[in-house]
Amino acid sequence: MPTRWQLDEFDALFAARVGSRPVGIEWPEILAFRNAPTFLDVVLRYDAISGPFYGNHFILNKVVPEAWRFQMIVFLLHLHDTRDPADPRGGLTLANFQRVCATLGLASAGRAFAFLNIMRVGGYLARDLADADRRIVRLEPTPHFVETVEQWNDGIFELIDTAMPTAGLVAARAQVPGLGRMMRQGGAEKLLAGWQPLGAFPEVEHFAARDGGWMLLARAMALALRQDDGTPVTIDLIAFGKEFGTSRTQLRRILESAHAAGLLLAPPQNGSNICPSPKLACAFVTWLASYLASYCESATAALATGGVAQPSYPNNEESAVSRNATG
Fold first, then answer.
1. Is the pLDDT assigned to residue 127 strictly greater than 80?
2. Angle between the N-to-C axes of helices 109-121 and 94-103, in degrees from 0 to 180, rounded to the nearest 10
3. CA distance 229 to 224
4. What tens digit of pLDDT does each residue of 24-79 get?
5. Is the CA virtual torsion 242, 284, 263, 62 positive or negative?
6. How many structural domains are present in the chain?
7. Could you tell me which of 12, 15, 11, 18 has the C-alpha nearest to residue 200?
8. Per the domain annotation, does 162 fall within a domain?
9. How many beta carbons lie within 10 A of that of residue 26, not counting itself?
């Protein structure tokens, strides 16, 4: 799919940012995805996959769309998936979740507590009734939440295979049902090691770090790519806000601040006259390439081990999270 944007225009800048970070996907792997002939189709499909996943889920909208909350979901699942049965205090407990959120600067203890409560009210988490020790409140994902997450995993596998058919992750997922969990586990381990998915792309972070901004940027870029003639795009902010659980005022502020930062070429007029700058367009496409390349790396690494997840929490008195917090 051709585009009017010269996607390599800012490669020297992006490569320097990526190369300055000790943890994360390497620049050549990012380029391999972004330069794939089908990758702009992937950008369009990302909006198509993400919209139904995030949209019209009131409770989920309160905990997922904003970037740091997405990482909180990753670690919520990671604590559950990597629980050491020999550790009576391991797994998804409030204390463990608050610890990892504090370690990575994702949320205060109070916000982490509220986050878990919202997830419980929404039917995404429930108390683990199998625990013999009733003094410890351990949570676990409900079947509804597991199904929702697996649908997201399958969407990611489809996007990766669209860009890189040789990855074969959709077929591998059929053979290894736990592949999505292992892919998430690999991503969580990278985050614990210091990976910052948005760190090399502050243009994208400008949107993703604000409630509603992540999907707003994805929608604007999909519309701009479909038109691809330089004309402004329009988004109905009232309908969009209802779909993704945010307000028109919030969305308008995101667009106005993006224009002030030079990320939009013209002053937005509520939801009209949205003109992504070449730098923003290149950053978004390149960021998505890095995002999918990292997931692909985690999934293929899991397959290389024979589809067996490696335990993150060894049988000792300290978890990987508590070691990270203290050292």
1. yes
2. 130
3. 8
4. 789 999 999 999 999 999 999 998 888 777 777 666 666 655 678 888 999 999 99
5. positive
6. 1
7. 18
8. yes
9. 13
| 261 or 209, which is more confident | 261
Token pair listed for 239: 């309908």
Above pLDDT 70, what percent of the chain?
87
Q: Is the dihedral of CA 116, 119, 121, 124 positive or negative?
A: negative
Residue 84 lies in a domain: no
| Size (the chain), residues | 327
The DSSP 8-state label assigned to residue 210 in this structure reads S
What is the domain extent for residue 195?
Answer: 11-57+146-307
Q: CB within 8 A of 276, min separation 6: which ones?
A: 220, 221, 224, 263, 264, 265, 284
Q: Does any domain span residue 181?
A: yes
- pLDDT band at residue 196 using 50, 70 and 90 as cut-offs: confident
pLDDT digits (tens, 9 = 90+) for 210-226: 888 999 999 999 999 98
Query: What residues does 233 pair with on adjacent strands?
Result: 274
157-190 confidence digits (pLDDT tens): 999 999 999 999 999 999 998 999 999 999 899 8
| pTM given for the model | 0.87
Question: Quick one: tokens of 218?
Answer: 């994805």
Encode burial over 30-64: b for 16+ CB neighbours within 10 A, e otherwise.
Answer: bbbbbebeebbebbbbbbebbbebbbebeebbbbb
Highest mean pLDDT among 187-191, 280-284, 323-327: 280-284
18 exposed, middle or buried (CB, 10 Å; 0-12, 13-18, 19+)?
A: buried
- Which DSSP category does 113 fall into? H
| Token code pair at residue 22 | 């000790």
Check if the beta carbon of residue 218 is closer than 8 Å to that of residue 155: no
107 exposed, middle or buried (CB, 10 Å; 0-12, 13-18, 19+)? buried
Angle CA(186)–CA(97)–CA(88) in degrees, nearest 5?
90
Whether residue 131 is contained in a domain is answered as no
pLDDT at 244: 85
